[in-house]
Amino acid sequence: MGTLADHPTVKSFRARIAAGAVPKPPQILDAEWLRSVCLDAGADDVGFVSIDSADIAAQKPEILAAFPATQALISFICRMNRENIRAPARSIANVELHHTGEEINDVARRVVSALQDAGVRALNGAPTGFPMEADRWGADKMWVVSHKPVAVAAGLGRMGIHRNVIHPKFGSFILLGTVLVDAEVSAHGKPLDYNPCLSCKLCVAACPTGAIRPDGAFNFSACYTHNYREFMSGFGDWVETIAESQSAKDYRGKVSDAETVSMWQSLSFGANYKAAYCLAVCPAGEDVIGPFLADRKQFTQDVVEPLRAKEETIYVTPGSDAETYVPRHFPHKKIKRVANGLSRQTSIRAFLNGLPRVFQRGRAKDLNATYHFTFTGRENAQVTIVIANRTLRVADGHEGKPDLRMTADSETWLRFLRKEANLPWALLRRRIRIKGSPRLLLAFGRCFPS
Ligand code: B12
After folding, report:
1. Does the Cβ of 390 fall within 6 Å of ligand 1?
2. CB of residue 227 inside a 6 A radius of ligand 1
3. Which of 55, 54, 57, 50 is nearest to 73 (CA)?
């Protein structure tokens, strides 16, 4: 065996260095050069953000955990074709969403390759959507980088009332991507000094679940339960329906043939979104706004009404705000009550972090109460939960005077959330103890249906 220095690869590498054929990684990337690399790779717009930007401080630890060398982030967008997204036919809209998603991943991959060839380490920081870190399900958020705050920091747009980033020219018809780079960039973007969102509330009118509220609140669980019926825990619920069915006939009583076919389609061709109506009806953006400005009524007729009028099944959680919203606003749409699995957490911390996502402010309208929860056993935690004026506040430690005190064994509580243990049993066995009116605990439960 020869020494490492005698190895043919080492020899040829050293020869290439001597001939000046190995690129020296630049310390600072020229922003104009990098911009043209990204546009040549297929991006429709691009901006750069320093890892030290205060606008992305909240996710800096996660970014550095994914790629510790990150010094700058490349945020870029790809346009979606408007008429496809607006089509009431889900197959047509989903092909556009999936295709643009693939394009985002392709662009990111090409940019990373170009940087690698220039001697710069870079990483496609997060797929457009899926795949995600599935092993984190029930414990933490599954995605690695949150594209929206990066795009806003890079100056590519601002979040509208529908919680999506709106680009000043292309409007809501964009998907986002992020590349993490081990080099500084010579110039960074800065957030737009105005919001392209017109506050027209057409997204509020079009959302079939009532998830988007006119005051900017977003009911995560309403959107997720319907839109993601064929993803993650919606899929899990379908599997459990099969497991619990006594026979094929019993299964068919619970799941229609069309739903079974739809699940097959999602598994075969990529999970299908049940709606993207908030993007579809958005008139913001210079390229989009024309028809809306020309004749607002006609625009509503042409773009919003077909989606509102569509007869379809809307998936809702029993006891949720969506369950009352849909029949009231869309009597011709059929509701189907399903479990969304969002309370099936693997830790008390995940349960507490998840509360805002399942909170139903409509169900909380008559409740004004302060709760002190103490969790014991495998996981110890003390927390104050205040529900007042249809808002939720969760804080570590015990604050103020409680209307109800609850002490619960953490494992029993998580089993209760998974519907594997019932409350009377847990109270009897003193695994859960309360001081205050049990009605307040029931009222609490009603605010978090899942
Ligand atoms: C989680 C997520 C969702 C969730 C929550 C949406 C939301 N408002 O954040 C759900 C499932 C509801 C969803 C739906 C949709 N999404 Co989405 N989604 C994401 C994801 C993975 C992260 C979003 C995020 O970082 N939010 C953080 C902050 C900035 O958002 P937020 O509103 O303040 O907070 C919410 C989330 O953080 C969430 N959350 C927090 N912790 C956890 C933990 C778990 C386990 C879960 C499930 C959620 C969750 O709850 C909060 C309350 O809304 C990104 C992809 C990515 N890697 O970035 C795409 C992304 C935001 N989605 C996108 C799209 C297009 C959609 C849909 C149109 C898809 C569709 N066809 O139906 C709808 C639109 C719904 C809407 N009006 O917001 C695009 C938006 C493009 C744009 N122009 O901005 C993104 C950026 C994907 C992409 N690469 O382009 N999405």
Report:
1. no
2. yes
3. 50
Angle at 423 between CA 405 and CA 351, to 5 degrees: 65
Ligand 1: centre distance to CA 444 (Å): 26
Conformational region of residue 231, where left means phi above 0, alpha means psi within -120 to 50, and beta covers everything else: beta
Domain positions in the chain are 19-185, 202-337, 348-446
CA atoms within 13 A on the CB side of 144: 19
The CATH T-level fold of domain 348-446 is Nonspecific Lipid-transfer Protein; Chain A (3.30.1050)
Residue at 259: amino acid letter: E
Residue nearest atom 78 of ligand 1, based on CA coordinates: 163
Do residues 143 and 126 make contact, with C-beta atoms less than 8 angstroms apart? Answer: yes
Instruction: Answer yes or no: is the C-beta of 162 below 6 A from any ligand 1 atom.
Output: yes
Per-residue pLDDT 10s for the chain (450 aa) are 689 999 999 999 999 999 988 877 778 999 999 999 999 999 999 999 999 999 999 999 999 999 999 999 999 999 999 999 999 999 999 999 999 999 999 999 999 999 999 999 999 987 888 999 999 998 889 999 999 999 999 999 999 999 999 999 999 999 999 999 999 999 999 999 999 999 999 999 999 999 999 999 999 999 999 999 999 999 999 999 999 999 999 999 999 999 999 999 999 999 999 999 999 999 999 999 999 999 999 999 999 999 999 999 999 999 999 999 999 999 999 999 999 988 888 999 999 999 999 999 999 998 999 999 999 999 999 999 999 999 999 999 999 999 999 999 999 999 998 889 888 899 999 999 999 999 999 999 999 998
271 lines ligand 1 (CB under 6 A): no
| Residue among 145, 158, 164 whose CB has most ligand 1 atoms within 8 A, to mutate | 164
**From 130, 150, 223, 358, mutation site for ligand 1 pocket: most ligand atoms within 8 A of C-beta:** 223
**CATH code, residues 19-185:** 3.40.109
pTM of the complete model: 0.94
Atom number, ligand 1, closest to the C-alpha of residue 279: 68
Q: At 47, which helix (H) or strand (E)?
A: strand 45-50
Which residue has the least CA distance to atom 80 on ligand 1? 164
**94 Cβ closer than 6 Å to some ligand 1 atom:** no
Sheet holding 369-376, edge to edge: 391-396, 381-388, 369-376, 404-409, 432-435
- Find out whether the beta carbon of 143 lies less than 6 Å from any atom of ligand 1: yes
